[in-house]
Amino acid sequence: QVQLVESGGGSVQSGGSLRLSCSLNGYTSRRYCVAWFRQIPGKEREAVATIDNRGDRDFAGFVKGRFTISRNDAETIVDLQMDNLRPEDTAMYYCAADPRWSARHGLRLGVGEFKHWGQGTQVTVSS
Fold first, then answer.
1. Cα–Cα distance, 11 to 120 (Å, whole number)
2. pLDDT for 26
3. pLDDT class for 1, splitting at 50, 70, 90?
4. pLDDT digit string, tens, across residues 71-112
5. Residue 49 to residues 108, 126, 127: CA-CA distances in angstroms?
6. 3-state secondary structure string, the chain?
7. How far lies 91's CA from each of 36, 44, 95, 98, 99, in Å?
8. What is the mean pLDDT of the chain?
9. Residues 22 and 8 sit within 8 Å (Cβ to Cβ)
10. Which of 25, 36, 52, 81 could form a disulfide with 48 if both were Cys (CB 3.0 to 4.6 A apart)?
11. Is 66 within 8 Å of 88 (Cβ atoms)?
């Protein structure tokens, strides 16, 4: 069974960049829709970006133009490159995967529709 492990979180100043990685523990990401979600304390977990088995991508409106999602050459890691970070991007970021969804559909689904989850990595952006 695929196990997801996030890395790359940390603290950065407003306008800075971070790159988060989601390792699929040797499984190919081509079998899944892989999503990045985030959760701010006191708020619901929300989808940030998705990439599906065809390589299609989708992004939440609040990160379009600032975040990108990609796979490594071996297709076992999915990265979230976050540029021009803002204090409101401060959150715990989670990687999720499910074989059923397209990128567009996965972005609009709730957390209950993704079968596999990582433990999360904290991102803190200071002003």
1. 15
2. 87
3. confident
4. 988 899 999 999 999 999 999 999 999 999 999 999 999 899
5. 10, 22, 24
6. CCCCEEECCEEEECCCCEEEEEECCCCCHHHCEEEEEEECCCCCCEEEEEECCCCCEEECCCCCCCEEEEECCCCCEEEEEECCCCHHHCEEEEEEEECCCCHHHHHCCCHHHCCEECCCEEEEEEC
7. 12, 11, 13, 22, 26
8. 96
9. no
10. 36
11. no
- pLDDT one-digit tens code per residue, 4-22: 999 999 999 999 999 999 9
Q: What residue has token string 């991007």?
A: 89
Q: Which residues contact 76 (CB under 8 A, 6 or more apart)?
A: 23, 24, 25, 26, 27, 28, 29
14-62, pLDDT tens digit by residue? Answer: 999 999 999 999 899 899 999 999 999 899 999 999 999 999 999 999 9
101, two tokens: 């969804």
Give residue 74's pLDDT.
Answer: 87
Q: Given the structure tokens 């996965």, which residue do they identify?
A: 106
Q: Tokens 């040797």 correspond to what residue?
A: 26
Between CA 127 and CA 106 the distance in angstroms is 31
